[in-house]
Amino acid sequence: MNTLSDSSRRGFITNSAMLCAHLSLAPLFVSLSGGNAHGRTTANGFEPAYLTLHQTGELKKRAENLQQLMESCSLCPRQCGVNRLQGETGFCRSPGTTLVISSAHPHFGEERPLVGHRGSGTIFFAHCGLRCVFCQNWEISHMGRGNRNAEEQLADMMLQLQQRGCHNINLVSPSHYSAAILAALDIAAGKGLRLPIVYNTCGWERLEILQVLDGIVDIYLPDFKFWDPDIAIKYSADADDYPDVTRAAILEMQRQVGVARPNNSGVMERGLMIRHLVMPNNKGGSVDIINWIAANLPHDTYVNIMAQYTPHFRAFDFPEISRRISSEEYRAVVDTAKSAGLTNLDVQGHWWLRR
Ligand code: SF4
Fold first, then answer.
1. Ligand 1 within 6 A of CB of 80
2. Has this prediction a pTM greater than 0.85?
3. C or N: which end of the chain has fewer Cβ atoms within 10 Å?
4. Tally of domains within the chain
5. Is 97 near ligand 1, meaning CB less than 6 Å away?
6. Ligand 1 center to residue 73 CA distance, Å?
7. Nearest CA to ligand 1 atom 1
């Protein structure tokens, strides 16, 4: 689960109600498959990873395999063991097998290669298995604000986002709904969905689940939040394995999709895009995280160094994270990344660095 600590996501939530209403109207059909909703590729010749698996029946099978894991739920590293198929609720508070979706619409505040000209087709799922104390969208992630939906409705949302001309389907906080998402994707693929799938996650993903997603997800968009297990314990509900699990997860994501490179139109269609949110007083362990990326991944790995930390929710219970970061704190992380040899950095504008 993403803790949604960047301003772009805040804007996304703020505007959701209004834009969702627009989405339901779906006034404009702009197909990325050259005008044919059932076309195989986009105008750029892109074919989504999941299409072959849909055609062979493998996608449906994998959705069923993930659903079986919900009998003693182990969809995320909490591994609660509750029987969600019988309606039991685990740490994430997701209601059994039902999807809870907060909003779905073209989003223009994500990374530029995901936004392009027509926006990232973002679907925001409620509830969370990580539940950070500083989450600025705590109403959604902690309290579960959203509407209950069936898999068929999620498939329709994906298709409507495609009709709106979005460049991708951006699944925000998908982990605890991965089984239903795959089932919905199978339905949507059968009805003509051809957009790349963005798996927008907190990074805290089990390898076993990621391996099920191999060949389905086109773009992985993980956070790497904390380096120190004690910090993860303190701010993310005792998730002491966050650093270890996330390191292994990011390596697996890299293995599956490789370095993210935009197409000729500047739009990303496949690859790994890492987000790191710089926290006050270096509580995220930014330097260690950046150096680990440089030592373990290609130097042209896409890394978004985010400056927009803002204390929300229970952050004010922790004085050390109850303020925004300074320009000096941010600049130090960017300088570290450049010194480490990382060449594909997404950083705040120079105006911010000069503050
Ligand atoms: S997805 Fe929810 S119920 Fe399942 S293991 Fe994670 S926190 Fe527990």
1. yes
2. yes
3. C
4. 1
5. no
6. 6
7. 176
104 φ, ψ to 5°? -150, 120
Residue 1 Cβ inside 6 Å of ligand 1? The answer reads no
What is the CA(285)–ligand 1 centre distance, in A? 26
Residue 349 has a pLDDT of 64
3-state helix, strand, coil in the chain (%, to 5): 40, 15, 45
Whether 185 and 162 have beta carbons less than 8 Å apart is answered as no
Q: Residue 69 corresponds to which tokens in the numbers above?
A: 């894991």
Percent of the chain with pLDDT over 70: 86
Q: Is the CB of 15 under 6 A from ligand 1?
A: no
Domain assignment present for 237: yes
Residue 32, domain member (yes or no)? no
Structural domain of 332: 7-23+48-353
Virtual torsion, Cα 9, 14, 16, 17, nearest 10 deg: 170
The residue whose CA is least distant from atom 6 of ligand 1 is: 76
Residue 43 lies in a domain: no
Task: Report the alpha-carbon distance of residue 134 to residue 87 in Å, rounded.
Answer: 29
Which tens digits make up the pLDDT trace of 225-237?
999 999 999 999 9
Query: Is 345 exposed, middle or buried (CB count within 10 Å of its CB: 0-12, 13-18, 19+)?
Result: middle
Return the axis-axis angle of helices 16-25 and 7-14, rounded to nearest 10°.
60
Q: Establish whether residue 72 lines the binding site of ligand 1, counting it when its CB lies within 6 angstroms of any ligand atom.
A: no
Q: Report which ligand 1 atom has the smallest distance to the Cα of 74.
A: 5
Which atom of ligand 1 is found nearest the CA of 127? 2
Which residue has a Cα nearest atom 2 of ligand 1?
A: 92
pLDDT tens, residue by residue, 155-165: 999 999 999 99
Expressed in angstroms and rounded, the spacing between residue 123 Cα and the centre of ligand 1 is 20
> Among all chains, which residue has been given the structure tokens 């109600």?
17
How many other CB atoms sit within 10 Å of the CB of residue 309? 25
